[in-house]
Amino acid sequence: MNNSNEFIDAAIPLPIEGPFTYSVPVPLRHGVSFGCRVLVPFRNKIRAGFVVGVGTTPSSSKEIKQVVDVPEEPPYLTPGLWEFIRWTANYYLLPVGLVLKTALPPGSDRKSKPWAVLTPDGRRWFGGMGDESGLTLPSKFLKAGVMLCKEMEDAIGARSLDDARKRGWVRIEERIARPRTSLRKQTLPELLDPAGSFHGPIEEPPPLVPDQETVFAVVRGAVQEGGFKPFLLYGVTGSGKTEVYLRAIGEVLARSKRALVLVPEIALTPQLARRFLRRLGGGLALFHSGLTPSQRLDEWRRIRSGMVNVVIAARSGIFAPLEGLGIIIVDEEHDPSYKQEDSCPYNARDMALARGKLEGVCVLLGSATPSFETFVNAQTGRLTRLDLPSRHHGGGMPKVELVDLRNTKGSDKTAAFITPQLTAAMKQALDRKEQVVLFLNRRGFDTFAQCRSCGHVFKCPNCDVSLTHHKRARDLRCHMCGYSQASPPVCPQCRGVKLFFGGVGTQKVEERLAEIFPDARIERLDRDSTRNAAALEGVLDRFRKKEIDILAGTQMIVKGHDYPGISLVGVLCGDLSLHFPDFRASERTFQMITQVAGRTGRATDSGKVILQTFDPDHEVIRHSASHAYEAFFQWDSSLRKELLYPPYGHLILVRIEGNSEKRVEEKAIRIGRAARLIKGDSREVMILGPAPAPRRKAVGRFRWQVLFKSASRNAVRNLVRSLMDEGHLKGHGLKIVADVDPIDML
Length: 746
Prior knowledge:
Blueprint: E1 7-11, E2 20-23, E3 37-42, E4 45-55, E5 65-66, H1 79-91, H2 96-103, E6 113-118, H3 120-127, H4 139-144, E7 146-148, H5 149-156, H6 158-166, E8 170-175, H7 210-225, E9 229-235, H8 241-254, E10 258-262, H9 268-280, E11 284-287, H10 293-305, E12 310-313, E13 325-331, E14 339-340, E15 346-347, H11 348-359, E16 362-367, H12 372-379, E17 384-388, E18 399-404, H13 413-417, H14 420-431, E19 435-439, E20 448-451, E21 468-470, E22 475-477, E23 484-486, E24 499-502, H15 506-516, E25 522-525, H16 533-544, E26 550-553, E27 566-571, H17 585-597, E28 608-613, H18 619-625, H19 629-643, E29 650-658, H20 661-679, E30 685-698, E31 701-710, H21 713-725, E32 735-740
Parallel strand pairs: 2-5, 9-16, 9-17, 10-12, 10-13, 11-12, 13-16, 18-28, 19-26, 19-27, 25-26, 27-28
Antiparallel strand pairs: 1-2, 1-4, 3-4, 6-7, 6-8, 14-15, 20-24, 21-22, 22-23, 29-31, 29-32, 30-31
Helix pairs in contact: 1-2, 1-11, 5-6, 7-8, 17-18, 18-19, 20-21
């Protein structure tokens, strides 16, 4: 920026629109460039802003405030990334400042705090003749010359601080702390040296099977040609999709371009990173929520500086500041983890396609069980479908045996879930020194606690769900908000002692397995047993080294892990998620069963799946057992078409949350009434509700919702946009979010 450009447009990472115009004092102009962080006055604070435009003419006729400071640090944003952020805000009906805040790494958008600064008069007074006023200032402050006002008030009191300010010894300034650089601990230290460089031999790529050759030839041609080319890589579990990813990335790197790889679960990143490092060498960054804030900021800076060629990331990595992108890969694109919920809802899978189009690069979506939206896009030609219909080792898909849980007997529910058929199959696998995975989508020991005298069910006071019994900790926990209480000796309603702990959780399964197979090495993989990334990686590492014989877990074991030693998978109850009040319940159940079944038989033809269910004749169960995705798709699609649910219709869900159920209900009713008035006689948009959310209460807040549905994307967006423009989606003390293309309907 030269001296003639005295104005900038700065975006502020707050839930507001923008950007805002500021003038730049002459001494600071040399440090200003696109994407850099500037400190600006905003709402009586000094805040971080990010330069998204420069010019000699202010874009506003209002009073122009001055930039306070320009920290000496590399820019955070690129022009392409800013354009992508603006697209995201427009599509998801969000303030651009909120999307910017979501995109940036922690620590980059800090606001100012009041600091006490020792003046020259104060320094002379306390350093020379001493203080005769009885006022004493902390020695730490006198030595450093600055201290947070809060710390000063804690030390000497607010009245004494004000007295020192009036005497001219101290002045109060708004200052903003600069982001810290992490003392970076390397991820995967066994593969990287202290400088972050890869050491060790580079692995030679394995030969491709004919199907992989065909698919890779198409992707290679797209990379060579350049431009936006979106693909669905539809390959059964174990078909070698990752090898296609690696070959495609190799082509991209050979052309001095960069690659972004998104994975749905943090557990996948170390395993995938090892494989990528051994094939591609260094120049790799991991970006996910498991890093500390300073580590994430450090990775962001490495990526932005061009030190990184390949980024492996969870959904937030869609905002990685990569320049010169050549390919974006979304592995397991069907996974709902790609959808960010809460105040800034977005879907990283859909945004990968948008970013690929904006930047003109190849986008590869991979899955054995594609989301219906992606599969229909492939049918209609919006995506090019590439098939890997068989496993790369040449073997068949695992054999699936259905076990009808209605025929199980006995009062011991855990024994009922670990059926004789499953027990026999596990014994055979263990005798052959092979590994077993058991899947149950329930954490804890028992899934609910109830009094048999009066029927009282122990529920979370903050959420509309029953508490889960954890035997080892001797407590009841809520798996939504984290609330816990000690397991009570008596019922709080009737003081009865006949308490019943029902249902089956992973803890109970683990305990029962230890009784049946006392010599087996058994571990559990769920959110309770792996509270942090290190614990999770430890379990997976031991399983990879075959130090675990039986691994029992929740959905965490479904997420794309590749362990050739698994010969048996047991699905303890395949229909637990089948009857949720959600139109995607069937799709999610099919995906879950197919994905967990795909963990076995990946190196040989001996894989087997025991699928236990209370409804073996259900269409979802039958299609899952026969690995028949397209038949299942045809069956479930016919139901969705009739009701205009995605991918044949478009949804926006307006959620209203608050501490007062009455206020939430009243606001939801007003929103519904306003929407119907705006809609008038038009039949383009259906308005469902307002109604309480299926989970009426979560984390202490009551929840209502209004669902907007239409065959026309523009029609439903225009209606909700009108509600926003007229102020109907604002409410003091309430949280109101318009979720475009919602995934979680509960």
